[in-house]
Amino acid sequence: MRVLFLTDNFPPEVNAPASRTFEHCREWVRAGHEVTVITCAPNFPKGKVFEGYRNRIFARETMDGIHVIRVWTYISANEGFLRRTLDYVSFMLAATPASLRVARPDVVVATSPQFFTACAGYLVGKLRRVPFVFELRDMWPESIRVVGAMQQSALLDWLEKIELSLYRNAAMIVPVTNSFKRKLIERGVDGAKIKVVTNGADLSLFRPREKDVQLTEELNLSGKFVAGYIGTHGLAHGLETLLDAARLLQEEGRDDIRLLFLGDGASKAALKERAAQFGLKNVVFLDTVAKSDVVRYWSLLDVSIIHLRKTDLFTTVIPSKLFECMAMGIPVLHGVRGESAEIVESEAVGITFEPENARDLHDKLVALSEDRILVRALGGNGVKAAGKFDRVHLAGQMLRLIESHLSSREAPRGEKRESMKMGAMDE
Hints:
Largest sheet: 7 strands, mixed
CATH class of the largest domain: Alpha Beta
Low-confidence stretches: 411-427
CATH architecture of the largest domain: 3-Layer(aba) Sandwich
Radius of gyration: 22 Å
Shape: globular
Number of strands: 13
Order of helices and strands: EHEEEHEHEHHEHHEHEHEHEHEHEHHHH
CATH topology of the largest domain: Rossmann fold
Strand content: 15-25%
Helix content: 40-55%
Number of helices: 16
Structural class: alpha/beta
């Protein structure tokens, strides 16, 4: 089978969409399929092209057997609605014609969080006369309304009409949560074509390990109880709540607890300024590191903090870092309501706190710091539960869904059957 995958994010970027896409495509290649990814020059989240890459019209490379095509896009930092939208639209305009330069696929998959990639997937599906699969990671543009990046407008209303059209025209929709599926059905989308494949973790990379001694010493964390946030510092994440909790700790003289922030994003500069304003000595800010190195920093944590703003939309979200924490055996302080909180509680891998409630976060952080037996128990539960969310298994699940859909389509004159065996010729 030939798979064409369109994504705005791909390694060496290290955000959740890049990781999921790479790990799924890698497994599909290992299963014997031919996978081509069309993406852009790596630049997320700072809007600066990574070292060793250029923002070129068309470039090829190979990663773990995956054929990667990078196209030119208007590059913008992960901030500002209009500039980001221009970034997204430019990818759609570049990826669509680029797809005509590769062998005809059997299926085209396009992934959110931004739906202009899905628009490209729909167009490519029409041009190449193949099914379009929409992998849904975020309810965009609804999330734009929620975080206040753009006021209510006719433009957002128009974008939501296009979004609904994409759902209706997709051959299959693969959301990452059951909540997304319920929401789509409520909006009139056919539930029979919605197949949930949750996020997960690469268990070959994320697994329990001792604290990295060198980093512990470099960051002056020896003897400290370390709580950390690792990931994008965006508007949706409400990380001011974590700083407010750090301020409460400092005012109490709790010098035994440190908060570590690793990552970049639209809110990082403001967060650092806020920490400086408060004079926080118990907070450490670090820039994004390579995927291969991030486990060293995960190892520093006694507990991981996961947080999103307090809004109904985020009750449908399951942050992918939850599964990485579980695989590493790191208990979670979970400030997200809804489906993800249900996982935390049912698997007993952490403790929930009310989103945007710094006092609640503070109290539960202190309680964990004083109960190392509970910390070990929660971490152990995470390791046991992580097997349910092994990325290898989930990649296979999505692959089987795609294969099942293709095999159910009527193939004129046996054309599809031959395509599945050896792939179609270049047009």
